Automatic annotation (TrEMBL):
CDD domains: HTH_ARSR (cd00090). This is HTH-type transcriptional regulator. Belongs to the GbsR family. The keyword Transmembrane does not apply. InterPro entries: ArsR-like_HTH, HTH-GbsR_regulator, HTH_MarR-typ, MJ1563, WH-like_DNA-bd_sf, WH_DNA-bd_sf. It comes from Hasllibacter halocynthiae. SUPFAM superfamilies: Winged helix' DNA-binding domain. Keywords: DNA-binding, Transcription, Transcription regulation.
Length: 184
């Protein structure tokens, strides 16, 4: 399977970005090839497209499956395993956010809660208060995320497209949202 120049540039960039997001470059590239493909691909096609080892592709596919970002697809008449990404971009985004929350935010909140339960030693009052404030802030963001996650995709897209027009809630006379002082 040969990649076009457009596809190759996307795949290379996605691999580079993946390494910045905390996943291996090859895992990002595997995902990018699957994302762009019109049909499910087997590991052999990914090896050919990326020029990496079969074991590297197998490990990358396992990681992507653990993130719920790819799924196995049976192809009639073929015993090989094929893989694909969801077609719905919003499903992909929601999955990424949910997985990052589960892997990064939830453990952090657990640790913050445990630390906050400790009786602060002498001299730890400031640190204890900062930990409590951080926990409260993250929990508030998670409540906001959960509210957004409950929205149907159509409503979420409409809300996102409103963008700056929502700012009238903060700028109109009698506004309900105060503006942030950027100098503070």
């Amino acid at each position: 399977m040969a990649l076009s120049d457009l596809e190759r540039d996307f795949v290379m960039h996605f691999g580079e970005m993946g390494s910045r997001w905390g996943i291996a470059r090859t895992v990002g590239q595997i995902y990018a090839v699957l994302f762009l493909s019109e049909r499910p691909l087997c590991a052999d096609a990914l090896v050919q497209a990326l020029g990496v080892s079969r074991s590297n592709v197998s490990m990358g596919l396992k990681e992507l499956e653990s993130w719920n970002l790819v799924r196995r697809k049976h192809v009639a008449g073929d015993r090989r395993e094929y893989f694909e990404t969801p077609e719905d971009i919003w499903q992909i985004v929601r999955t990424l956010i949910a997985e990052r929350k589960k892997r990064e935010i939830d453990p952090t909140l657990s640790t913050l809660r445990e630390l906050e339960l400790r009786t602060p030693a002498e001299g730890d009052a400031h640190a204890h208060a900062r930990i409590a404030a951080l926990r409260e802030h993250i929990e508030g963001m998670m409540r906001f995320y959960e509210e957004l996650d409950r929205l149907e995709t159509k409503s979420l897209v409409r809300l996102m497209k409103m963008g700056r027009s929502i700012s009238h809630l903060a700028t109109a006379p009698g506004r309900i949202l105060p503006l942030r002082n950027k100098g503070a």
